[in-house]
Amino acid sequence: ELGITYRMLGSEVTIIEAMDSILPIFDKELRRPLEIAIKKQKISVNTNVFAKGIEENKDGSIDLLFTPKDAKEGTEPERLTVDKVLVTVGRRPMSAALAPTGVALDERGFVKVNNKCETNMKGVYAIGDVCDLGEMLAHVASFQGEMVAEILAGEDRVYEPAAVPAIVFTEPEVVAVGLSPDEAKAAGHPIITGKFPLAANGRALTQEAEKTAGFVRVTAREDDHRILGIQAVGTHISELVGEWTLAIEMGALLEDIAQTIHAHPTMTEMTHEGVLATLGHAIHSM
């Protein structure tokens, strides 16, 4: 995300990635349009390499040292001279000060909570990135905060979402909610899938015709047509994720969305068309 942002602002950007691809948590089909876009943006990507350290130079520049992942011990690292190095290898909670209070922490330092976000100390709650419940996402933290406020007001709430949307704010954006086709198969679901391209959506064409690479992909059970997951890649595609999350949360069937009128011309029509493609009767496919 930040690499693309800095590139769009005019900086030269090099990405050092230990895995064999960028965004390895997503499948190859989802990653491909982004990989093509990154190449067009002239961002240099080095995969299967480990960053080993940095050395500051007298002129204020920095040498980033890195080696191939399969390099033998003692291999001389390669050097990349840059102005700045941004380390984005994850986060950990700043919870050490809680240890004397008796609040239970796991081995990584996250606060242990139940499905109400309550700690081992009655009446003490933890939400968001500091607790061991849910993904480390701003919208998860916000949801948990609202839930705890309602619990304190006497409501009976638990944190048990059927799906949590994940968005990578690159250009194009990558969005996922629910199960991918591979995940659904691994979970034992008999599945059907369908895709709809951005290039066939009128609203996408009128907004930025030169940025219509990407698609919406729908996965559902073959027997009862219950929607299991929707993923997509494309410019502005994150604006559609609310409907997808609601559909999975409510246990919607393909027919529920197929029989819902979607306004024209809007990008929401891609959800409708993706569902129709999954049912085998797409209208505007390419």
Q: Order of strands across the biggest sheet?
A: 6-7-10-9-8
What class do helices, strands and sheet pairing give?
A: alpha+beta
> Could you please say which CATH topology of the largest domain applies here?
Enolase-like, domain 1
CATH superfamily of the largest domain: FAD/NAD-linked reductase, C-terminal dimerisation domain
Order of helices and strands: HEHEEEEHEEHEHEEHHH
CATH level 1 name of the largest domain: Alpha Beta
Estimated helix fraction: 25-40%
Question: Which consecutive residue ranges, at least 5 long each, have pLDDT under 50?
Answer: none
Q: How many domains, as an integer? A: 3
Mean pLDDT: 94
Classify the oligomer. single chain
- Based on CA atoms alone, the radius of gyration comes out at 22 Å
Number of helices: 8
Shape: globular
Give the percentage of residues in beta strands: 15-25%
What does this structure look like?
With 286 residues, the protein is α+β, with helices and mostly antiparallel strands. The relative contact order is 0.11. The protein is built from eight helices and ten strands. The protein has a five-stranded antiparallel β-sheet, sandwiched between helices. It has a three-stranded antiparallel β-sheet with strand order 3-4-5, with no helix packed on it. The radius of gyration is 22 Å and the shape is globular.
